[in-house]
Amino acid sequence: LLQQLTGTLALAVFTAALSSLQYGYSLGVINAPQKVIEKHYGRSLGVWSEKAGGLSGNSTEEDMFPEAGQHPAVVMYWSLSVAIFSIGGMLSSFLVGFVGDLRGRIKGMLMVNILALAGGLLMGLCRMWKPHIMVISGRAVMGLYCGLTSGLVPMYIGEIAPKAYRGALGTLHQLAIVIGILISQVIGLDFVFGNDDHWPLLLGLSGAPAVLQTLLLPLCPESPRYLYIIQGKEQEARKSKSYTQFKKNIKRIRSSVYRQQLSVALMMHLSQQLSGINAIFYYSTAIFARAGVAQPVFATIGVGVINTLFTLLSVALVDRAGRRTLTLVGLGGMCCCAVAMTVGLKLQNEYAWMSYVSMSAVFLFVSFFEIGPGPIPWFIVAELFSQGPRPAAIALAGCCNWSSNFLIAMTFPYIQTLLDSYVFILFAVLLLGFTVYIYFRVPETKGKSFEEIARVFNKDRKKSSHPPGDGTELQQLKTSTDA
Questions:
Q1: Which SS3 state, helix, strand or coil, does residue 193 take?
Q2: Which PANTHER family match (predicted)?
Q3: Sign of dihedral through CA atoms 190, 192, 197, 200?
Q4: Which residues contact 361 (CB under 8 A, 6 or more apart)?
Q5: Is pTM beyond 0.90 here?
Q6: Stretch (H or E) spanning 407
Q7: By the 8 A CB rule, do 451 and 252 touch?
Q8: Of 45, 209, 373, 382, most Cβ neighbours within 10 A?
Q9: Cα dihedral 308, 313, 314, 315 sign
Q10: Interatomic CA distance for residues 39 and 118, integer angstroms
Q11: Dihedral (CA of 220, 225, 230, 233) sign
Q12: What is the Cα 180 distance to its own chain's centre?
């Protein structure tokens, strides 16, 4: 099996994962320099002056808005700067299948890098015009890019990965995302780039991985499945698979019904976004502050480190323990942590030690999320579907992910106001529901070929008399020298 991990495969996965790194960086980069950016928005809009110590002009309003971020106009533009990223991703996720099949996975990723470079330049050069317009435009374009790559990357990695390592390699998409978030948290500190002088550079670096990826993508092989089925390039595809057996398997599954697979795919993505993970990140700084942490921002970075470490653990376990098992463990653990979080928040004013219960629950919640519910939904969709419907299924699942993400972002402040610390009981109930659903409806895909997984969902199909074997899977990518 180790022979399947070739240099060509390593290069291809690393290059594809640069898009995921960019996605994670774009997710996290906007948070750290918020106060600094709000000041620049206020100045550009003419509603705030640092020299005056508040709003320029009316002294009454100056008392009302001592900080730029409190002015309604700044609040509106800042909220749009954050939300437009999800809107862009939601819209472009529909086009994943079209872009992936138009010119291939490699050329598709290469084409959309134009969006990443454009978005990075708009934000990096935002001081040349109106910062609020430039940043919002750049975030929108970057959202379009991330919506496309969040589907293209798992699809490409899933199609080129050997069966034995498909889970581990698929999890690298999420690993790159959390590393990107961690990098943005660290270099977003005020003594690095998150300050008045360097914040445009901080935002502009969102497009930096696209430069390296653009140089490396031409060296990467195209998905053999795409070459054969979409392009019909049989000679090229034959180099990377057992051609005859693969052709037979394609014929076996072309009449499959995909309704059950789609339901599972959508529920897996809903479980990721409705788990409460974003609420945890929202609460984390306040929880650490109540627990007496002198610098809560560093504790939040600590959460980012935990994110990364437990995603690495998932990479190591996913092809041994299995997708279904890790997802169930993750969701069940998060459910328990959500209950502990509620108890800790309600009682920490009566018992000082309860604040540490809340703080521990934050770390454990994030740990359980990254073991399964975080990384697995991204690549399991590619496993659930055969080649024909796979791009469309990934597009629908991605749109579901982005839409529920946007929904949570827009409604969470109101839910929080309504339920206060009991908000985590709501998430605990949702997590319990997802756990039950996955226990009864989601099969284990570990060690199975795409065709074998498709047959699991088709109860009426007769079992093939052919024993499963490596011949049904696309084999490892190899150059003529097995590099």
A1: coil
A2: SOLUTE CARRIER FAMILY 2, SOLUTE CARRIER FAMILY 2, FACILITATED GLUCOSE TRANSPORTER MEMBER 2
A3: negative
A4: 337, 338, 340, 341, 344
A5: no
A6: helix 390-419
A7: yes
A8: 373
A9: positive
A10: 24
A11: positive
A12: 10
